[in-house]
Amino acid sequence: MTTKHAKYTKMLGFLSCISRVSWFLNMERNELIQQITKDVMQQLSKQPDAQEKPCCGNCAGQQPAIPPADLAQYIDHTLLKPDAIQADFDKLCDEAIKYKFKSVCVNSWRVAYVTKKLQRTGVAVCSVVGFPLGAMDMRAKAFETRQAIENGAKEIDMVINVDALKSGDLHTVEEDIRAVRRATTGTTILKVILETCLLKDQEKVLACEIAKKAGADFVKTSTGFSAGGATVEDIALMRRVVGPNLGVKASGGIRDYAKAAAMIQAGATRLGTSASVAIVTGASGSGTY
């Protein structure tokens, strides 16, 4: 073999090696995430079910349940109905101030109004984005986010692209969340709504992993405008997937103290509800959110 031919053969081998490395580095992100999800699901199936019913406070060895009034610190007092009028938002803000709820959660169009009402009260303003379907262009979500923050929102609750998730287009799901994250300021809290009633458990795990990877501060169950709301089982699953450092918000169908307390026990660190007053006073509310 001539020296020239030997060099040529060596070069072919080197290029073949480079090609294999390039193939490995460019594996479909979806395949990698799917494998991670499979591993996570296997690990979760091996863990004991830690869910418990809320304790009345009389059970030996258990901590008393949280008093109803103390739940206020967990609650995003919510009004997202399309037929709500200005007087309804006045009432929402008055109740939030009286009961010291964590925030009020409204559609982006009402952010400026409630921000003015809640100045210097300690009640934050939360705006939903891409609500309730999550099916719009990510640039539209980013624009809505920037406008909401400019108008006073301190927290953003965005809806993921459910279509992309269920179609297996995980790159789009992640970029959708990142587009909103980039539109926020450094102190803005970002919650990602999964719409769990539309998802299989594996899809819930995927959505939680992607939201965490994309820089979300919370994962959230539901819009309250679809086929179902929060369940204790979903909250427990989401908590186990995201770990102890990410927030988990339960929303949709939480209308009384017992269900609210059950969500907290399952791992929720925030509650989204329109029945906030009923919950903290021990009554029972109405509505779907």
TrEMBL record:
The active site is at D157, K220, K249. Pathway: Carbohydrate degradation; 2-deoxy-D-ribose 1-phosphate degradation; D-glyceraldehyde 3-phosphate and acetaldehyde from 2-deoxy-alpha-D-ribose 1-phosphate: step 2/2. This is Deoxyribose-phosphate aldolase. Keywords: Cytoplasm, Kinase, Lyase, Schiff base, Transferase. GO terms for biological process: 2-deoxyribose 1-phosphate catabolic process; carbohydrate catabolic process; deoxyribonucleotide catabolic process. Belongs to the DeoC/FbaB aldolase family. DeoC type 1 subfamily. CDD domains: DeoC (cd00959). It is an enzyme of class 4 (lyase). The gene is deoC. Its EC number is 4.1.2.4. One of its GO terms (cellular component) is cytoplasm. One of its GO terms (molecular function) is kinase activity. Catalyzes a reversible aldol reaction between acetaldehyde and D-glyceraldehyde 3-phosphate to generate 2-deoxy-D-ribose 5-phosphate. SUPFAM superfamilies: Aldolase (SSF51569). It is found in: Cytoplasm. It catalyses: 2-deoxy-D-ribose 5-phosphate = D-glyceraldehyde 3-phosphate + acetaldehyde. NCBIfam families: deoC. Transmembrane segments: none annotated.
